[in-house]
Amino acid sequence: MANSSRYSFPCKPATNPKAIVSGSHYRFSVLTSRLIRFEWSEDGEFEDRVSTFALFRWFDAPHYRVVDSKHCLDIITEHVHLTYDKKQFSSSGLSAKIGEDVWHYDGKSYGDLGGTARTLDGAWGRVDLEPGVLSRKAYAVLDDSKSMLFDNGWIATRRPGRIDGYLFGYNGDHKAAIKAFYRISGRQPVLPRWTLGNWWSRYHEYTASEYLDLMDRFKEEGIPLNVGVIDMDWHKVNIPPKYGSGWTGYSWNRDFFPDPDGFMKELHKRGLKVTLNDHPADGIRAFEDQYQAVAKALHHDTSREAPIEFDCTDRKFLDAYFDVLKLTLEKQGVDFWWIDWQQGNRTKIPGVDPLWVLNHYHYLTSRRSLKVIQRPLTFSRYAGAGSHRYPIGFSGDTQITWAGLEFQPEFTATASNIGYGWWSHDIGGHWGGVRSNQLTVRWVQLGCFSPIMRLHSTKNLWNSKEPWNFEKEAHKIIKDFLVLRHRLIPFLYTMNVRASYEHEPLIQPMYWNHKDDEAYTVPTQYYFGPDLIVAPITSPDSPASLMGGVRAWLPKGRFVDLFHPHLVYDGGRYMHLHRDLTQLPVLAREGTIVPLDTTPKLANGSPRPTEITILLVVGKDAHFELVEEPERDGRCDDDDDDLLQPALSAFVRTPITWDQAQGILTIGPEWNGAGKWRQWNVKLIGHTTTDVQARVPGFRVTRDEAEGCTTVALGNVHRWSPEGFEIALGRDLQLDVVDVKARVFDMLHRCEMWYDQKDPVWDAVARSGDAVQTRVERLLGLGVDAAVKNAVMEIWAADGRSEGGAKGHEVWADVKGGMVEELGEVLQEYVIV
């Protein structure tokens, strides 16, 4: 890769002249009817260069009117009425009415639904979030006045005193606001398939043999991995004091890694990609193996062993950093870099953030490695609006606490409010805290349903995340979820392409898809793709019910839990969900299709599956288009016009459609495929009706009922069947009705509580002579653990079709004492509002 290509990327920063309204010191750009750029400049000149946020300011101008008088300017679009007094921007002189709200200029970014943060380093729980571009008000504001610029591909700075901001007037249409954000800032890139599997990372003084043995142990355990992360002890750390600290280093520690090339070759043979940790702040010092080579490239005097200072504002240094120092290590086998920048946001040039420079140029430089990694990639911290273009994010060193776990799903979801969709957390927490099987299991479950699944921990003899280091039950659960993560990759890769081309991040807050006020009250709950709702359990299990609980809000519709298909829920209300340690709530609405890789023996690197099981939730029509990377090798050609984004037409696509009325599932035809055979299965989640008869002409079909599901095995089907193939499963299939008594009995039987306390609980549910409301009141009045009451209520009220069900009479006991009403007609003396 020539140096010049590192300084080239797609952009179109100039604004359509038809969208501009300007005066001697002001300029407004009407980008859409709901997005207006506002600029003020003392010198009368305005900024048309690329900023870290804004790459594409050229929009087709919408219809708008301008009313221009001597002392006032009005710009009126279909959605925004902006008023300006033609003076330096002020709260009294610049305002805009959007919907029922009025924005007054204050020089700040505003987005009260939150965005994300640069790092979670040291976080015990919640941290302050930078604003995103979504708000409960009708507007949000992104102030771009102080961001770094690019001029012909190289970094540049702004002239002081200029104001440059963007008013998003989307009035609750959150998805439209994010699409406008991506339109101006650039889309999320497509990630290589292998990034979506399990990553192993630990801050530990590994030797090469120890690390390889560990990878082999994972294989023996049947746990697939895709990425081997080597933390900072890969390089020399214990250096002579005259050189400073050992955090920065680029020379292999030969005591631990006597043959680095051979070590990384062995990792590659095991199907793993390799990334090395880099703390670049201290530059290249005289003890480094490549000191002389880098010095020669920079004409640096080495006679006194003067260090080569890290200076990302010096283009010559940056070229030597990438094309001498790092290229040498990449030729040894390093696939991509973990940039662990922790030294602030200042450089020799005011306004230039070193993290931005590192992220931007590492990502562009990684194009030279496409034959290995398939897509450009870096791994680093968030640097501000626009950082979504440089995945993957590293969120930093959280403490191992329940509070830290509780905040992470919210933190991940709100990051989508600033377009940042690919966070990688230290799953299990990084440091501090206490050893807890429960906490680790719940964190791994969250990790399975997070953008990136990377186990990690700090340098501590007792703190490591190998599944077999935990107790037998926890070991099995952690293993099961790590295996599940790889089985989800067909779904995840499809969502990866959707995120890039349809501007739909994998994880979305509930309010992105629902305007109900309740959608804003469940911050730890989120959409995982278009149809799955995840409500992670982030608190310890009850010692009585032996389950963890979470308060959830379900939108209108009917849902089934993928992990507990015996439970079907009517939506449009709050529910308290309870699961034992083996499960977390993952709810699928009627009409959901999720493809899983059910290849019997999963391999490192996540090769394309030879067997796929379609999870089908009946009750509504459903459609899912399975998207896979191109058959060649998963990358675009080197001579493609845009190496940063492959053509959508290059991907392999297989439509999967469920016709609810006719009961026919259609798979294929596959587009762009190479014509191979694949085993297909269908698993009906929450449906066990015995009259289901699958008919596939020419194939032997077997079926099995277990754990609240019916699985139909179809055998090998040629993927290039020109018309696809149809499976007749049965007309108008419905989810099973919840058997309240059977489910309550199973739950209550497991509870660890006084035997004589179980009888009145069972009596309240099972006695059919009294009205449901009377029995609900009786249950709530019992002196038993609140978690047990709520677990009973969940089952009793879940499915409105259930005989004797309590839907409409729900009352939830506060586990901290007292009762809290969510929905239902209940007596007020049982309720704390």
From TrEMBL:
GO terms for molecular function: alpha-1,4-glucosidase activity. Keywords: Glycosidase, Hydrolase. It comes from the Eukaryota. Pfam families: Glyco_hydro_31_2nd, Glyco_hydro_31_3rd. One of its GO terms (biological process) is carbohydrate metabolic process. It is an enzyme of class 3 (hydrolase). Residues 504-594 form the Glycosyl hydrolase family 31 C-terminal domain. Its EC number is 3.2.1.20. Belongs to the glycosyl hydrolase 31 family. This is alpha-glucosidase. It comes from Staphylotrichum longicolle.
